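Supplementary Methods. Inverse-folding protocol.

Structures were first reduced to a discrete structure-token string of length 384. This string, shown here, constituted the complete conditioning input.
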């Protein structure tokens, strides 16, 4: 290669790198503009979709994971709960188990905003590496994006839905709790500043308009507010403040107010009593318990055992007559926090001929991943 060819190649490489960097900068600027627009504007009409969803018996496999075995017959009135299982893309189960594609319109999930933002971060990361690869000379080699993603916990919590789902009857005790957080806040200092500031502004306005009497009154109010608020603040901080208060008969008023602190993540529990009628139904019970036990736990990302892959997530939907029961509450995607299995609920150990217990009690405690809000509760019944 001649010197001119070499210089031309270097110029092309440098141009490609600059072009890629400029493109990435423009994309970042557009993203920042979008974020600013969203922060300054009121939210769009993004209320929850309360359309009824149907259970697709051909899409999901529940025959070995249902209790009772005849759950789908008219005997139970068509009322049941389906526990859909979602595993991480990084999980080995995503490769060994059969998965299904979700319909974005009828099977949209609610997992919180962090997951969506993490996906954007991953896309940006891949875009930067792709631009760098285009600019690098072939002799240098390319950056292996997949190798980096495999070496670093960087999968944005993307998941796949398993074809296997658990079908159970509606528990005998079904309830849900909503809670918001409120707390006391001392507002004396803030109120003093607002009051003094208002009086001060009025004093300046009156002075400029030539109203000396009004200006004097507002100035006096400002000084009085500052003096009393300062005295109250001093009483809160000086040593022996209780003794001073008792001696003077005066106490500072912190001007407490109730302020909104946030929303609690909903938690709920299901209690099931399994009485398998034969060994076939007993095997289904074991399969169900195993699925919950397996998917509530994490797995290691590699054989080095330094990094966990998150446990699976569940989507729980109540059905009646084959369609979603909108007379009950919805759930966001959730995780199984704890699970209790009691093989001797009656105080004695009773088994079938193969050793399978004749009664098992199961308690499942879930926590939702997205906070409730007016948007997720919806304008009509059928939301959270």
């Amino acid at each position: 290669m001649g010197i001119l060819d070499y210089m031309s190649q270097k110029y092309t490489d440098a141009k490609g790198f600059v072009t890629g960097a400029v493109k990435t900068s423009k994309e970042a600027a557009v993203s920042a503009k979008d974020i600013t627009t969203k922060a300054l504007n009121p939210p769009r009409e993004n209320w929850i979709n309360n359309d009824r969803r149907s259970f697709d018996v051909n899409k999901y496999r529940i025959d070995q994971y249902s209790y009772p075995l005849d759950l789908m017959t008219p005997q139970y009135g068509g009322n049941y709960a389906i526990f859909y299982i979602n595993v991480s893309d990084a999980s080995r189960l995503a490769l060994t188990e059969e998965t299904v594609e979700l319909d974005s319109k009828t099977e949209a999930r609610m997992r919180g905003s962090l997951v969506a933002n993490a996906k954007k971060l991953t896309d940006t990361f891949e875009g930067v590496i792709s631009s760098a690869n285009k600019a690098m000379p072939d002799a240098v080699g390319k950056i292996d994006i997949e190798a980096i993603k495999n070496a670093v916990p960087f999968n944005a919590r993307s998941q796949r839905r398993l074809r296997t789902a658990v079908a159970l009857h509606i528990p005998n005790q079904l309830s849900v709790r909503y809670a918001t957080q409120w707390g006391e806040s001392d507002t004396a200092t803030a109120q003093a500043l607002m009051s003094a500031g208002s009086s001060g502004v009025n004093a300046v306005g009156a002075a400029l308009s030539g109203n000396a009497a009004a200006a004097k009154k507002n100035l006096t109010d400002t000084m009085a507010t500052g003096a009393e608020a300062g005295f109250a603040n001093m009483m809160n901080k000086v040593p022996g403040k209780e003794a001073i208060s008792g001696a003077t008969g005066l106490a500072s008023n912190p001007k407490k107010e109730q302020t909104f602190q946030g929303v609690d993540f909903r938690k709920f529990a299901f209690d099931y009593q399994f009485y398998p009628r034969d060994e076939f139904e007993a095997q289904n019970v074991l399969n169900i318990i195993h699925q919950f036990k397996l998917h509530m736990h994490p797995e290691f990302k590699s054989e080095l055992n330094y990094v966990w892959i998150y446990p699976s997530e569940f989507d729980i939907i109540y059905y009646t007559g084959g369609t979603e029961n909108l007379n009950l509450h919805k759930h966001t995607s959730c995780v199984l926090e704890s699970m209790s299995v009691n093989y001797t609920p009656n105080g004695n150990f009773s088994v079938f001929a193969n050793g399978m217990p004749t009664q098992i009690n199961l308690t499942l405690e879930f926590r939702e991943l997205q906070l409730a809000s007016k948007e997720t509760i919806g304008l009509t019944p059928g939301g959270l």
